[in-house]
Amino acid sequence: MTYLLHVLAAATLLAGCSSPPGAGTAPTTKETPMNASVTMQPERTLAVGPASLRYDGVEDSRCPPGMKCVWAGELAYKFTLSGPAGQEMFGLTAAKPAFNATTVPGATIALSHDMSPVALEAKPVTGLPVTVTISRR
Question: Measured between alpha carbons, how far is 131 from 37 in angstroms, rounded to an integer?
Fold first, then answer.
């Protein structure tokens, strides 16, 4: 009986050690080179030179289909760029499709093309992937 308990205890310990380190955390990606386009999923981070770019999500304030609104609203992709010089949060929209970073001097992050999906329901769009181009000025 003691032998069986030891075997079960050993199996339990080994099963607990079978997950790779960092399991359950956001996957890391290799560094993205400058002058490259990359599609990002919400709440994911990628390395850009000496910094990291996190796609925080999307804010959709557009007027729902079939409704009359005073303001048309906009679709805004929200990001956080963290680098040696600090951290900055910014949004990319159809009206402002590019951002000149200060935490990574000379870097520009821009929407690769019109990323304004049509809302099919009367609720805001969430969880959209976005394609951005990271380049040097």
Answer: 7
How do strand 98-100 and strand 86-92 relate by DSSP bridges? Answer: unpaired
Contacts of 44 (CB under 8 A, 6+ apart): 26, 27, 54, 55
- Domains located in the chain, CATH noted: 28-136 (2.60.98.10)
pTM above 0.90, yes or no: no
Helix (H, G, I), strand (E, B) or coil at 135: strand
For the chain, percent of residues with pLDDT exceeding 90: 31
Burial of residue 92 (number of CB atoms within 10 Å: 0-12, 13-18, 19+) = buried
Q: Is the pLDDT of residue 46 over 70?
A: yes
Angle at 64 between CA 131 and CA 60, to 5 degrees: 35
